[in-house]
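From the shared-data thread, chain only:
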Amino acid sequence: MHPTGRVEKPIGIFDSGLGGLTVARAVQEAFPSEHLVYLGDTARVPYGTRSAETVVKYAIGCAERLLAFDIKLLVVACNTASGVALEALQERLDIPVVGVIQPGAAAGVRATRSGRIGVLATAGTVASGAYERAIHRENPSIEVFAQPAPLFVPLAEEGWVTGEVPRLAATKYLEPLVEVDVDTIVLGCTHYPLLNETIHDVAAELLGHELVVVDSAEATAAALRELRPGSAPRRGAEANLRILVTDLPGQFASSASRFLGKPIDGLDIEAIDL
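Structure, as tokens:
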């Protein structure tokens, strides 16, 4: 609660499933006093196999459900929805709406020295060209090399983020990026931060030198600082996190702690309809 007694409005965050919890985690770490409401649309995961029109419809439904909590801003913590529905949401809502693609792209452009950026993402995000467009909006001269890394999603959800299996997958996906000598890699899926250490270590070994791995979740949290007064995150009082899902709350709970980086004992996960 605000010192005046006024209840602070929360930040709304949605994704098609678990991955967006890495964004919620980054926002909590950057703004530990902020109240969050997270919606995982687990009944319709994944969004990446849907048409653009369907994703826009789903995204609007998630946003409208979160508006019922009187949120002060909305974070689209889904790369697919950020790529195809962000503009529609920004036009429809009278609160700030932030996606995960442009902040990650901008952080990659700031980090690169060679002008050669690799992007690891799902096949759908790679096929959409969303990161190439976002990076070229920041700097048209940057060379972008996008690589699908589909196995990283189930590895993250199963908790296999270190060891031989994820290293083999990382080697497979990183070799094409090493061949073109990128110096920066943008993690273009919200599941991938769980494998950040493995991705960085394998890439550095293959390249023979250090490189920058950009976590789009952290970049998105950093972008929230740029919002206008009244909608920007605050610091001070103790925060809370409310989690809503559209299906399988028990299954969601079993994996959520890995994505949040902390136990979720005592945290209710509420099943809702959209």
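The beta strands are 11-15, 36-40, 73-76, 97-99, 116-121, 143-148, 184-187, 212-215, 241-245, 269-271.
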